Amino acid sequence: MRRLLLALLFASGTAHAHKPSDSYLTVLGNGAALHGQWDIALRDLEYAIGLDADGDGNITWGELKAKHAEIDAYALARLAISAEGKPCRLIPTAHLVDDHTDGAYAVLRFDAQCEAASQTRIVLDYKLFFDLDPTHRGLLRADLGSGTQTAVLSPTRPRIELDARPRSLLEQFGDYLGEGVWHIWIGFDHILFLLSLLLPSVLLPVAGGWRPAERFGEAFWDVVKVATAFTLAHSITLSLAALSVIELPSRLVESAIAFSVVAAALNNLRPLVQGRRWLVAFGFGLIHGFGFASVLTDLGLPREALLLALVGFNVGVEVGQLSIIAVFLPLAFVLRQHWIYRRLIFIGGSAAIAVIAAIWLVERAFDVKLY
Q1: Which has the closest alpha carbon to 314: 238, 367, 251, 260?
Q2: What are residue 122's DSSP bridge partners?
Q3: Are residues 225 and 320 in the same domain?
Q4: For residue 188, how far is the Cα from the chain centroid?
Q5: For 199-238, what is each residue's pLDDT tens digit?
Q6: Among the three residues 167, 193, 214, which one is the final residue of a domain in this structure?
Q7: What is the pTM of this model?
Q8: DSSP secondary-structure letter at 197?
Q9: Each residue of 256-315: pLDDT tens digit?
Q10: Rounded to whole angstroms, how far apart are CA atoms 205 and 25?
Q11: For residue 20, what pLDDT is reported?
């Protein structure tokens, strides 16, 4: 990373896709000292504290440098680290800039001066941008000398405990499995796509509309086909993308995911694909796999347990998906004959999903903020 790249990074920033707000936090330790690096998107800092002093739409190194002290104060006030139950003081050590797939990021490096002589049990509290953007996530990667630990921090999960003790392969597998479950639960676009495919599962197509399924088995096997196709498809592309065999621009992937949600929801309102919705699930599942892979790549795949992390995250995504199905399907089957389901949940829900996803599509394709 060199400062001479700043002009190019900032000038190209407006061409990147709008995507959910993320920051990348790395914490490294050896039991006696802690160091950190925090990559924070310039677009998020601009919104929070203002960086573009002259308002010309371009952030120069001079403008960013003038805000270093304010960035330090703003960011580090929203991150707390303690060791062995005692607080650590976070001291900025360097400011750089880096380019991620979605634009330029300010890079804040810091040391943690801890009261405890040993730093083997670390607790981290993260609150960056949660008051401004409830969809913001902090992608944490930590190595305290016992292997890589990862986590996705969010308003509903702002705190994590890290341990420097050696971690077994089973524990590492469990970490990535948990992150896969958590990602599907907070991945609203993936959830809405899945719900769009599930909504017709308790209904059967007839001329001019739908009729309730007579037996639970009909709905169950329809869901099995859809879920299996979606799982198979996104498992393929998740693996290929996470291993860098195939790489696609984030703008294309995020926009295509939003389009898939729109298409699935509109298909419920004006069915074009009825009997073979599993084909739709498979086709768009290939795109969703790239979205899953972006999170896994950002978290970091440990070289010492590459296959384990990949399988664990993939299994976690499926567990999270199956938990949603397990809750939705029985309730939908019970309500399928009532007008509340057919008109309010099925028709109204599909229309609402289509509108929400259409807003996402415009935002992601044209890099604008509509709400």
Answers
A1: 238
A2: 83, 162
A3: yes
A4: 9
A5: 999 998 777 678 899 999 989 998 999 999 999 999 999 9
A6: 167
A7: 0.75
A8: H
A9: 999 999 999 999 998 877 667 889 999 999 999 998 888 777 777 776 677 888 899 999
A10: 49
A11: 65
Q: Which token pair is 239?
A: 């693996």
Q: Do 198 and 73 belong together in one domain? A: no
Q: Residue 276: phi, psi to the nearest 5? A: -125, 50
Q: What is the 3-state secondary structure (H, E, C) of the chain?
A: CCHHHHHHHHHCHHHCCCCCCEEEEEEEECCCCEEEEEEEEHHHHHHHHCCCCCCCCCCCHHHHHHCHHHHHHHHHCCEEEEECCEEEEEEEEEEEEEEECCEEEEEEEEEEEECCCCCCEEEEEECCCCCCCCCCEEEEEEECCCCEEEEEEECCECEEEEECCCCCHHHHHHHHHHHHHHHHHHCHHHHHHHHHHHHHHHEEEECCEEEECCCHHHHHHHHHHHHHHHHHHHHHHHHHHHCCCCCCCHHHHHHHHHHHHHHHHHHHHCCCCCCCHHHHHHHHHHHHHHHHHHHHHHHCCCHHHHHHHHHHHHHHHHHHHHHHHHHHHHHHHHHCCCHHHHHHHHHHHHHHHHHHHHHHHHHHHHCCCCC
- Are 30 and 139 found together in one domain? yes
Pairing of strands 22-29, 137-143: parallel
Give residues with Cβ within 8 angstroms of 113, minimum separation 6.
Answer: 88, 89, 90, 91
- Report the alpha-carbon distance of residue 196 to residue 260 in Å, rounded: 10
- Indicate if 144 and 210 belong to the same structural domain: no
Q: What is the DSSP letter of 153?
A: E
End-to-end CA distance of the chain: 33
Residue 371 lies in a domain: no
Instruction: Report percent pLDDT > 90 for the chain.
Output: 58
Q: Strand, coil or helix: what is 95? A: strand
Same domain, 207 and 310: yes
What is the total residue count of the chain? Answer: 371
